Amino acid sequence: MAAPSVLISPRLSERAIDPPADCQLCPRLAAHREAMRARQPGWFNAPVPGWGDPDAWLAIVGLAPGERGANRTGRPFTGDAAGALLFATLAELRLASGFPAESPEAGFRLDGVFITNAVQCLPPANKPEVAEVHACRPFLASRLRSLPWLKVVVALGQVAHQSSLKALGGKLPKHPFAQNAVHRLHTGYALVDSYHCSRYNQNTGRLTPAMLREALETAIAVGAEHGGER
Ligand code: SF4
Predict the structure, then answer these.
(1) Disulfide check for 206: which of 10, 157, 191, 201 has CB 3.0–4.6 Å away?
(2) Three-class DSSP category at 119
(3) What fold characterizes domain 10-225?
(4) Residue 133 in contact with ligand 1 by CB distance below 6 A
(5) What are the residue ranges in the chain where pLDDT is below 50?
(6) Whose CA is nearest to atom 6 of ligand 1?
């Protein structure tokens, strides 16, 4: 019989906001983490917790840690091309301040924004399996629920869209992914979609800086409908 691709743990309480550094729920990702620790002992190489403003009204959900970005620095989107575009756009929109943002030690801060990923461990080839996204969703859900002022979630890419939608209590067939689409959920949250700001999507033109900015401006407008910032 084939080994299960994820281990379902009864100890995974919905209140566990961040996974332990040695989380073993996804054996493939745990093995990859160990391999990375041997290859790059100075890197973070653990589930990367979300970071940002604990009073955030806006959450941004990416796919998973980038190998040389979050997996190296220990902070989502920090240290790679995806983060460079995301952080610059947030700063333009006055949702962040204090460049440079290339390392967690620098003074960059998010204002009213929290950033996390659908999958918290580095996946090989940047491609988490469906079961791994499912296994990590309780952590995403509990993190989003921990933000008392949260109104809007921006999902970067299809996987983040699907996992965020489920974490927020929405149903997929009713809310398909589309660039700059707004999904108003019965649970009171709004979900805004954008293609992921990965280097690949930037290089191929699937996502331009203007498209990302437009999606974040949509999030700001939707947040204002809900009373804006706290
Ligand atoms: S991806 Fe999430 S659930 Fe899977 S091993 Fe990492 S922290 Fe645990």
Answers:
(1) 201
(2) coil
(3) Uracil-DNA Glycosylase, subunit E (3.40.470)
(4) no
(5) 1-4, 7-15, 230
(6) 121
48-90 pLDDT, tens per residue? Answer: 999 999 999 999 999 999 999 999 999 999 999 999 999 999 9
List, in order, residues 6 or more apart from 148 with CB less than 8 Å away. Answer: 55
For residue 83, report the distance from its CA to the centre of ligand 1, in Å: 21
Secondary element (H or E) of residue 217: helix 209-225
Q: Is the CB of 48 under 6 A from ligand 1?
A: no
- For the Cβ of 143 lying below 6 angstroms from any atom of ligand 1, the answer is no
Q: Which residues contact 126 (CB under 8 A, 6 or more apart)?
A: 63, 64, 66, 67, 198
Cα of 196 from ligand 1 centre, angstroms: 20
**Closest C-alpha residue for ligand 1 atom 2:** 136
**Pocket lining: 123 vs ligand 1, CB cutoff 6 Å:** no
With a threshold of 0.90, does the pTM exceed it?
yes
- 3-state SS assignment for residue 134: helix
Helix axes 209-225, 81-92, angle to 10 degrees: 50
